[in-house]
Amino acid sequence: QGQEKLSCNPRKENRSHVVLCELGNPMKAGAHIAVVMELSVSGLEDAGDTVAFQLQLRSKNSHSPNSAVREVKVPVEAQAAMELRGMSLPATVVLPAAWQALEGSRRPEDHGLKVEHVYQLHNKGPGTVSGVALRLAVPSRLRGSLLFYLLELGTEGGMNCTEPPGLNPMQV
């Protein structure tokens, strides 16, 4: 009928984290109690799909002091909103209609204008992320003609990158 706040205390017991909540003493025979608990658990990045809690009622009653242990599995759902931002430097490039690359040259400027594409991947939260894979498809040819010559690939911020096939094939 009435609602009361429980007094709960965390402690360690046999290398396990235990939260002990006092429900009331003495308790009348046949009493029914509903308990709603809100737990905050950190470090769930590697927990998998569920977190298991073991629940047990303990009593000072000498006839049946401990109930059976019940396991409750709670699904873990990670939430993080990723945002991809990108830009090209310069934003616009116009090539002359009769432009030709110099065959055999190893100078980048003899093969076209430099266009740098910059992408930033941001985690907008609320959770942390790891193991994110970003795949970019850059068209290098258009109707059989060279469109983009992929010269190099660089990253910042501790990211790993796999070089695409055909990166700088003429070693410019």
From TrEMBL:
Listed under GO biological process in this entry are: angiogenesis; cell adhesion mediated by integrin; cell-cell adhesion; cell-matrix adhesion; integrin-mediated signaling pathway
* An example molecular function term from Gene Ontology annotations: integrin binding
List the subcellular locations.
Membrane
Q: Pfam families recorded for this chain? A: Integrin_A_Ig_2, Integrin_A_Ig_3
Every Integrin alpha second immunoglobulin-like domain range: 3-76
Q: What is this protein called?
A: ITA2B protein
Q: Which domain of life is it from?
A: Eukaryota
> Where does the secretion signal sit in this chain?
none
Please give the organism.
Nothoprocta ornata
UniProt entry keywords in alphabetical sequence: Glycoprotein, Integrin, Membrane
Start and end of every Integrin alpha third immunoglobulin-like domain? 83-172
SUPFAM superfamilies per the UniProt record, alphabetical: Integrin domains (SSF69179)
What PANTHER family does the record tag this protein with?
INTEGRIN ALPHA, INTEGRIN ALPHA-IIB
Q: Which gene encodes it?
A: Itga2b_1
| Lineage of source species | Eukaryota, Metazoa, Chordata, Craniata, Vertebrata
Per the record, membrane topology reads: Single-pass type I membrane protein
Its Gene Ontology cellular component terms are: external side of plasma membrane; integrin complex
Query: Which InterPro entries has this protein been placed in?
Result: Integrin_alpha_Ig-like_2 (IPR048285), Integrin_alpha_Ig-like_3 (IPR048286), Integrin_dom_sf (IPR032695)
